[in-house]
Amino acid sequence: MERWYVNKDGHKKGPYTIIELETLFRKHQINEKTEVQKEEESEWHPLSETSLNSHLGQKRHGVLSHVDHLTGEATHADLKVADLFKDVFKKHKKGEGNKIFIVGTAETTPPENQISSSWPRPWVYSRVFIVLAITYALLLACTYIFGNANTIPGLMVIGSFTVPFSALIFFFETNAPRNISIFDVVKMFFIGGVAALVATLILYSIIPVGKLNYFNALLVGIIEETGKMVIVALFIKSLKSKYVLNGLLVGAAVGAGFAAFESLGYAFNYSIEALALTKNVTFASDTMLEIIFARGWQSIGGHVVWAAITGAAIVLAKKGSSKLEMHHLFTGEFWKIFIIPIILHFLWDCPLNPLPQIAFKQIVLIIVAWIVILTLMSTGLRQVSRLEKEHKTTNAL
């Protein structure tokens, strides 16, 4: 049986079996850049340059092994979509989750040459979802089993925030550069989300929109995606983000806040209108719950991912520059990607709606949006890998 040593912070650890190394790799204690030495050999090599690479699943074959049509670059950062869910069903120690949330500070942001370019295995987002879902269920019990009307506002808030915020944590975990703190993420969620609503309302006051026919649905897509884009661009400029994965995270934060507060508004207004029209409290409460549920599951392919795509488009338009300037938003690189969330939003709102009983249109658009997201994640990881190689070349010179 093969046995290997690991160079851990300058210390020789091991020997380990391949199974033991797989465990270390899964727990992110080693990665493809870690130096390893076969037991009977004397030279050290990066893990990615040894036979361990295939054993530990670094050579992946999946849906993204093709030319990246968004950037025009060839990609070998293939993906098994299952990798994004593998760790969800595994048991994790409390300390593992804590390590994920302490990133983004001066002490915890890794240097560029130590950023992992392998596909991430996020899992904390699922635990955040469970916590919020349990909270929602308890509030539901307070409201409908015990008849306590004081918990209705909390029910609407938690119900509207559960899915968008959990999706945001997914993007936080997949931000490989680990250079944005959870405080910044929460700040962008609240301030950015509401600021995007304000920006959108300003645009609506300038360009009024009537009944949602095809033309007005297109206007809604342009107005709302532009409103969010302005706020996403401001945060990217403030953070001086140069990574595509940063753009995805910043966009997702603003989009998640936008989605959560918008859903909360819909849940409140529709329940009030239902009560005013029917004078039936039960019907009004059922309407509120239907709105929360429908907008909740659909938000995984709505404002959160649309704004994430926009954030990635902004970073790609900068072409590695740390400074965002106005002319970047008028380039072909930006518009060929920014047009995607506008079109997705238009199709979502337009009258075309086959098989509405099973939300067929929404399901198809969610799948399309996530194909784009995964492609952009591939682009982001390839960017990290390219920057690492440039860093090594510079140091060698």
Strand line-up across the major sheet: 2-1-3-4
Number of domains: 2
> How does the helix and strand content classify structurally?
mainly alpha
Mean pLDDT: 89
The run of helices and strands is EEHEEHHHHHHHHHHH
Q: Count of DSSP helices?
A: 12
* Biggest sheet character: 4 strands, antiparallel
Cα-based radius of gyration, to the nearest Å: 23 Å
Shape annotation: globular
* Euclidean distance between termini CA atoms: 40 Å
Helix amount: 55-70%
What is the assembly state of the chains in this entry?
A: single chain
Describe, in short, the structure shown.
The protein is built from 12 helices and 4 strands; from the N terminus they run E-E-H-E-E-H-H-H-H-H-H-H-H-H-H-H. With 397 residues, it is mostly helical. Residues 4-49 form the GYF domain.
Structural notes for this entry:
- By secondary structure, the chain is mainly α.
- It has 2 domains: 3-58, Dna Ligase, domain 1, CATH 3.30.1490; 81-395, no CATH class.
- It is 60% helix and 5% strand.
- The chain contains 12 helices and 4 strands; from the N terminus they run E-E-H-E-E-H-H-H-H-H-H-H-H-H-H-H.
- The chain has helices spanning 18-26, 52-55, 94-101, 124-144, 152-173, 182-206, 214-239, 244-278, 281-298, 303-318, 332-349, 360-396, and strands at residues 3-8, 11-17, 35-38, 45-46.
- A 4-stranded antiparallel sheet has the order 2-1-3-4.
